[in-house]
Amino acid sequence: MKYEEALQELETIVRKMENDELDIDALTNQLKRAQQLIKLCKDKLTKTDEEIKKILDQDPATN
What we know:
Elements: H1 3-18, H2 24-58
């Protein structure tokens, strides 16, 4: 799943929660899904950050 897709799904879950569109059973499931999406997004951001740092460390123009 792409970062943008995960973020969009997360925004949908938040909107539904804010608008009281979820019953208690759906809320539990959606909260679990939100946790998975947050972890996915965090992992992708961390990986991207590491890759950018690696590239910048190798670029002689920045040293």
